[in-house]
C-alpha cells in the first residue's frame, strides 16, 4: 500500500482563476488504476462534504479518448502508448508527489478542475473529416475496391487516433497537427477519401488555425506521448496534401 | 494559393524553404573560406570574384539578405503565435522526456546566431560595402594605386582573427549554429512534406552536415588565430 501527496489543479468553472491544491492520500493499492485512485480520493472528499475533483472518463479501457490528465508533467502519465485510464498505481512509489493538471491550450479552455473543452476537435472534424457517400443503393462495395496493403495499413494506423488531445497537451506550441494529420491521412490514403481530398485538407487546416492551435515545430513530443503511437509521417503527408491543394487552387 | 502564407502550414513551408536556401549558402560560404587555410592566392581570387561579379553582387547578395531577414522575421512571427497558444503553463512539465533540448530551443539558438550575424556583418560586409560602393574602390587591392600590392582579402581575414575574444565569440556562435541545424535540417524536410524512407536515410547526413559545417568555420577561425 502506498501513501501519496496529490497536487491537483482545482478550478470552479471557466471563469475561476484556479490553483493547485494538495491532497494527501493513503492506502493506495499498486493494482489500482490511476482513475480508481481518483475515485477513492473523490469518495473521501464527498464524505468530508467537499467538492469532488471533476475529471473526464468514459470507457476506462483506452478506446474512447475521454480521459485527459497531465500527470507529473506528461500527458497520460509516465508510461508510453497508454491513456490515463490504462495507467496503474504501480508506476508510482510510496511517498511520491503526483501533479495532476488539465490539458493546457488556448483552444482547450478549462471547464472545471481537470475537464477541458475539446469541441475544437469536433469542429475540425466537421470541417472535412468525413466522406460523402451516395447511399441511394448503388454504392460500390468498399471491399471490392483494391487497395495496396501498405496504404491500407497506414490508413488504419492513422484511423486509430482517438482524439484525446495528448498531442496538443504535450506540444510546447499546443499544435494540433498530429490529430488533424491523422484524420486527413486516414482518408487521403484510400480511394474513397481522395474524391474530396483537396477541400478536406484546406478546410480542416483552416479550422485548426481558426481555433487558435499553435504551429508545428517538429519536436516530436506529440508522437512520443500519443497513446496510439500516431506517426509524424502523417504530419508530413498532411503538409504535402495541403501544399498540393493550395497550389492547385 | 493566395492565402498560403496566412496558414500555419504555408508559413512553415516558407520557413523551411528559406532554411534550405541558407543551408546551401553555408556550404558555399565555408568552401570559399576554407581555401584560406591552404591557398592565400585562391582565397583572394575567389573573394574578389564574389565581391565584384555583377550577378553575385546585384542578384545573389540581395536574395541572400532577403532570405536571412525572412527566416528570422518568420521565426519570430511563428514563435509569437506559439507562445499565445498556451496562456497558462504547466506546474510540472517533463518536456525532456519526449523531445530534445535543441528542438525546443530553436528561438534561443536562432537569436544567438542572429546576434553573431550582426558582428559578422560589421566585421566584413559593412567594411566591404564602404570600400566598394562609398569609397568607390572596386580594385580589391591593398593599395588601389599600386597593382603590385596584391589583394587585401586574405590579410583582412587574418587580421580579424587576431583577437582571442572575437575568435571565442565565433566559436560559441558556431556551436549554437550547430545545435540550431541539428534540429532545423530534418525539421525543414518534414515541413515541406518529405518524410519517407529516402528522407530518413538523410538522418546520418544531417548530423554530418550540422556538426561538420560549423566545425569547419570554427577550424578556420582558430587556424588563423594561431598561425597569425
TrEMBL record, chain B:
Keyword terms, alphabetized: Membrane, Transmembrane, Transmembrane helix
Keyword Transmembrane helix (UniProt): yes
Transmembrane segments: 63-80, 101-122, 167-188, 208-226
Keyword Transmembrane helix: yes
Protein's name in the database: Succinate dehydrogenase cytochrome b subunit
Amino acid at each position: 500500500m502506498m501513501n501519496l501527496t496529490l497536487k491537483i489543479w482545482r478550478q470552479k468553472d471557466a471563469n475561476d482563476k484556479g490553483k493547485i491544491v494538495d491532497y494527501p492520500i493513503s492506502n493506495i493499492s499498486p493494482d489500482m488504476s490511476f482513475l480508481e485512485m481518483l475515485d477513492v480520493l473523490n469518495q473521501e472528499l464527498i464524505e468530508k462534504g467537499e467538492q469532488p475533483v471533476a475529471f473526464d472518463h468514459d470507457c476506462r479501457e483506452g478506446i474512447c479518448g475521454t480521459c485527459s490528465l497531465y500527470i507529473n508533467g506528461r500527458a497520460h502519465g509516465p508510461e508510453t502508448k497508454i491513456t490515463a485510464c490504462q495507467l496503474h498505481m504501480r508506476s508510482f512509489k510510496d511517498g511520491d508527489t503526483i501533479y495532476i493538471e488539465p490539458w493546457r491550450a488556448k483552444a482547450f479552455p478549462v471547464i472545471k478542475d481537470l475537464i477541458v473543452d475539446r469541441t475544437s476537435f469536433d469542429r475540425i472534424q466537421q470541417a472535412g473529416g468525413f466522406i460523402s457517400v451516395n447511399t441511394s443503393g448503388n454504392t460500390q462495395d468498399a471491399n471490392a475496391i483494391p487497395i495496396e496493403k501498405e496504404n491500407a495499413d497506414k490508413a488504419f494506423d492513422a484511423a486509430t487516433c482517438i482524439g484525446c488531445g495528448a498531442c496538443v497537451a504535450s506540444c510546447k506550441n499546443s499544435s494540433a497537427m498530429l490529430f488533424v494529420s491523422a484524420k486527413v491521412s486516414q482518408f487521403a490514403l484510400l480511394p474513397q477519401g481522395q474524391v474530396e481530398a483537396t477541400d478536406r485538407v484546406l478546410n480542416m487546416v483552416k479550422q485548426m488555425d481558426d481555433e487558435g492551435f499553435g504551429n508545428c515545430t517538429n519536436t516530436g513530443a506529440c508522437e512520443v506521448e500519443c497513446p496510439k503511437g500516431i506517426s509524424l509521417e502523417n504530419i508530413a503527408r498532411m503538409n504535402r496534401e495541403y501544399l498540393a491543394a493550395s497550389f492547385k487552387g | 494559393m493566395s492565402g498560403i502564407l496566412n496558414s500555419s502550414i504555408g508559413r512553415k513551408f516558407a520557413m523551411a524553404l528559406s532554411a534550405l536556401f541558407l543551408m546551401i549558402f553555408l556550404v558555399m560560404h565555408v568552401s570559399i573560406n576554407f581555401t584560406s587555410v591552404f591557398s592565400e592566392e585562391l582565397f583572394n581570387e575567389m573573394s574578389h570574384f564574389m565581391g565584384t561579379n555583377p550577378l553575385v553582387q546585384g542578384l545573389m547578395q540581395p536574395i541572400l539578405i532577403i532570405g536571412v531577414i525572412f527566416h528570422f522575421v518568420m521565426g519570430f512571427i511563428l514563435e509569437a503565435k506559439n507562445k499565445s497558444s498556451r496562456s497558462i503553463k504547466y506546474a510540472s512539465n517533463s518536456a525532456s522526456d519526449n523531445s530534445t533540448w535543441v528542438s525546443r530551443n530553436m528561438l534561443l539558438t536562432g537569436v544567438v546566431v542572429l546576434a553573431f550575424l550582426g558582428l559578422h556583418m560589421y566585421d566584413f560586409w559593412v567594411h566591404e560595402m564602404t570600400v566598394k560602393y562609398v569609397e568607390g574602390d572596386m580594385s580589391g587591392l591593398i593599395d588601389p594605386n599600386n597593382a603590385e600590392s596584391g589583394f587585401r582579402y586574405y590579410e583582412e581575414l587574418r587580421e580579424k582573427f587576431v583577437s582571442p575574444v572575437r575568435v571565442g565569440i565565433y566559436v560559441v556562435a558556431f556551436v549554437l549554429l550547430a545545435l540550431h541545424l541539428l534540429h532545423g535540417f530534418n525539421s525543414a524536410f518534414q515541413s515541406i512534406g518529405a518524410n519517407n524512407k529516402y528522407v530518413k536515410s538523410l538522418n546520418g547526413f544531417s548530423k554530418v552536415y550540422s556538426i561538420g559545417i560549423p566545425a569547419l568555420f570554427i577550424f578556420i577561425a582558430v587556424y588563423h588565430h594561431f598561425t597569425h
